[in-house]
Target: Peptidase M50 domain-containing protein
Amino acid sequence: MIFFQIVIEIILFFFVFFMTFQITTIIHEFGHAIPALILTRDRVKITLGRLDKNNKKFKQISLRRLDIEIKSFSPFIGFAHWKSSQLTKYQRIVILAGGPIFSLVLAIIMVFISIGSEGKFLMGIFNFKEITILARNIALVSFLFTSIPIIYPNWWGDYGDYPSDGHQILKLIKDNEIN
Model:
C-alpha cells in the first residue's frame, strides 16, 4: 500500500511541477502580449509548445485581437508574436521587457503568498507553501534566463539560436538612440 502511495505522490509531484511551469510560461508570454495589444492595433499571438513545422495546432483560442495557439503540452516553451514594423524602439523595448517583468512580479507575489501559507495542504498531499516556493523559483529562473542578454545555445531546443529578451533589448539600445 505504501508503494502505491509513493507512486501517486511522485506522479502528482511531476503534474504539479509541469503545470506550475506551464502557468509561469503563460504569465511570461502575457507580459509581452499585453503591452503589444496596448501599443499596436494588430493581432498578437501567443504560441505555447514546440515550434516544429510538423507540429500542428492542438487548440487555438481567440480573444478579440489576441490569439493563443497551443501546439503541444511543452510547459517550457512559449513565444509571443507581434508586428513591430510600426513601433518605436522604446515601444519594442517595453514589449520585450514585459515578459521578464511579469516573471519577476510573479516571483515576488509568490514570496508574499508563501509567507501566509504555512501548514496548508493542497489535496491533502502537497504543502501549499512548497508549491508557492516552486512557483517562485520557476518564475525567478524564467526572469533570469530571459533577462540575461544571450543567444540561446542549440541544445536549448526550440529556443536554440534565438536571442533572449535581454539580448534583444540590449541590441535595440546599442543600435541607436531610443526614439
